[in-house]
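Q: I'm building a small set of examples for a reading group on sequence design. Run inverse folding on the following structure and report the sequence directly after it, with nothing in between.
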């Protein structure tokens, strides 16, 4: 049976189980009870405020009021809201909306880069409040709706709006952080609550789902509701229990240092769902989490030389082993290579990859650079712990973390404990895709 078949079998079993499961009767609140501590109610209230904030950012209806050829390579366009922008001809020609150049059904460009002249010239420009019409020097005619053009104007505001549609700005947090709570079933039933969770995950990188059903695959079920499960060689979900003959140090009762999951994959899973099916009774099994983004910024400020090392040195991560369960890959041998802190072209922290257990013993450095590399890792590790949050999940809790930003670990616990945690993954591409679709449905998408 392939892993995919196992997943399908798991879900068909769950569907049968779901129909026979008596749903727990939950306290129902009205939207007016703002002092209530019911998770669903709190969540709805915060969703309302979030929606309000987003609505204020929405682009108002705009019309085109004038055009003026200011340079030989662009046209200056003025809109009814006062926005003015030079629009380059090459961009306009590239983005012609006519059926010869653009497939409306597929919403994709047909016009080939091969046919594009970078120094294309307009022979005639006409405009009214709804449309900009350009005849090009080879006779081709292009028309652009003013709303469409306004959203893409090369202004700081239009560019910033698009950045937010792509990904929301992250809000770093430290040791005083408290996870925002969501009711599991409510999040499945109400897209406004799901949107609130998606926004929370993008900004805070962390949240807690409460009242999760006592099923091993409650995590994958929620992920399938959002999009698709991200599989790894451990299959669609991993029982984090004390396994005999284990294939990962996480699957023991030992203390686990804070880490990101699966950096042995070049594309690490975006969001991890950590479901506490059954918590250990007594001391042990506490969770510890931290915001790698927050720690990385402290490192950048206080130890720029170490920040430099961790962003410019590629590390190997590796994982070799065999299946513990029949849904896992029979044998695996992964090696990835990436910096511990990845920054983007704007020098913003894009990804954190810390995992002491699977960090490779091979280091691609000359010997004199090895000790400074360890010093940098140690200082970063100290900052991560100094700003961490410790708590104990209850049975029925499901913590969700941005796995390329936040780290998680746990205290050790007794070997024969019944502690049972399940982990599963969702990729960021799918999470952001769902966020945009819900925003569009609720009329909260910033641009079209
Ligand atoms: Zn065209």
């Amino acid at each position: 049976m392939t892993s995919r078949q196992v997943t399908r079998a798991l879900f068909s079993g769950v569907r049968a189980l779901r129909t026979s499961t008596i749903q727990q009767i939950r306290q129902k609140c009205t939207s007016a009870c703002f002092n209530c501590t019911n998770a669903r109610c709190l969540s709805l209230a915060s969703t309302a405020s979030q929606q309000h904030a987003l609505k204020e950012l929405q682009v108002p209806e705009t019309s085109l009021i004038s055009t003026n050829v200011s340079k030989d390579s662009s046209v200056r366009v003025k809109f009814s809201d006062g926005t003015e922008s030079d629009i380059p001809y090459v961009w306009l020609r590239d983005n012609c909306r006519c059926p010869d150049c653009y497939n409306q059904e597929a919403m994709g460009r047909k016009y080939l880069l091969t046919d594009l002249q970078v120094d294309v010239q307009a022979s005639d420009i006409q405009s009214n409040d709804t449309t900009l019409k350009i005849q090009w020097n080879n006779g081709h005619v292009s028309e652009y709706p003013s709303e469409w053009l306004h959203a893409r104007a090369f202004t700081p505001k239009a560019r910033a709006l698009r950045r937010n549609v792509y990904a929301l700005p992250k809000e770093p947090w430290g040791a005083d952080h408290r996870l925002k709570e969501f009711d599991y079933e409510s999040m499945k039933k109400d897209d406004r609550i799901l949107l609130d969770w998606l926004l929370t995950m993008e900004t805070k990188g962390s949240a807690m789902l409460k009242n999760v059903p006592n099923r091993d695959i409650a995590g994958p079920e929620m992920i399938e509701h959002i999009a698709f499960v991200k599989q790894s060689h451990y299959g669609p979900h991993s029982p984090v229990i004390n396994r005999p003959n284990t294939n990962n140090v996480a699957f023991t009762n030992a203390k686990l240092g804070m880490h990101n999951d699966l950096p042995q994959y070049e594309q690490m899973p975006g969001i991890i769902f950590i479901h506490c099916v059954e918590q250990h009774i007594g001391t042990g099994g506490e969770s510890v989490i931290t915001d790698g983004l927050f720690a990385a910024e402290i490192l950048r400020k206080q130890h720029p030389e170490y920040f430099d090392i961790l962003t410019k040195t590629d590390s190997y991560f590796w994982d070799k082993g065999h299946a513990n369960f029949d849904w896992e890959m029979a044998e695996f041998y992964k090696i990835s290579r990436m910096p511990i802190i990845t920054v983007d072209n704007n020098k913003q922290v894009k990804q954190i990859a810390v995992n002491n257990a699977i960090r490779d013993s091979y280091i691609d450095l000359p010997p004199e650079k090895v000790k400074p590399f360890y010093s940098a890792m140690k200082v970063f590790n100290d900052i991560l712990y100094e700003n961490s949050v410790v708590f104990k999940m209850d049975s029925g809790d499901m913590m969700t973390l941005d796995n390329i930003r936040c780290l998680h670990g746990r205290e050790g616990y007794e070997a024969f404990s019944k502690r049972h945690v399940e982990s599963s993954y969702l990729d960021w591409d799918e999470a952001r895709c769902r966020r945009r679709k819900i925003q569009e449905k609720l009329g909260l998408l910033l641009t079209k």
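The domain at 64-166 is CATH 3.30.2020.30 (NE0471 N-terminal domain-like).
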